């Protein structure tokens, strides 16, 4: 009897391995323990970098903070309820407003000095470059004069 490959099990295994490699969600610190929502995040590894995509619709770049300390990448911010919405008397809210927080333990190969971030259409993209690894090289041995 032949075994069928379960594509979802392969994707789940890949996701578990990426989380172990790039990091686990850490507990929020201080006042951020009161986070009202958690952005969905995709993490991918390319040959040159780790790329994190976080869904933060309605959050302007000025309201997002990214910090790196001791190998821990922290993303926090706030989606604010607009005053105009409060004044219109909206009767139903399904979108969550307030503070958010995510953190990830970075691998030792992460180049934390060159991390870049940008937002585009409600998606925060953080690129964590990998450190260049020293390539092995052969050392020539010279013949001494005798």
TrEMBL record:
Family according to the record: Belongs to the small heat shock protein (HSP20) family.
InterPro entries linked: A-crystallin/Hsp20_dom, HSP20-like_chaperone, Small_HSP
Pfam families in the record: HSP20 (PF00011)
Keyword Signal assigned: no
Record key words, sorted: Stress response
Keyword NAD: no
Superkingdom of origin: Bacteria
Name of this chain's protein: Heat shock protein Hsp20
Residue ranges of domain SHSP in the record: 32-144
Coiled coil: none
Protein species of origin: Sulfurivirga caldicuralii
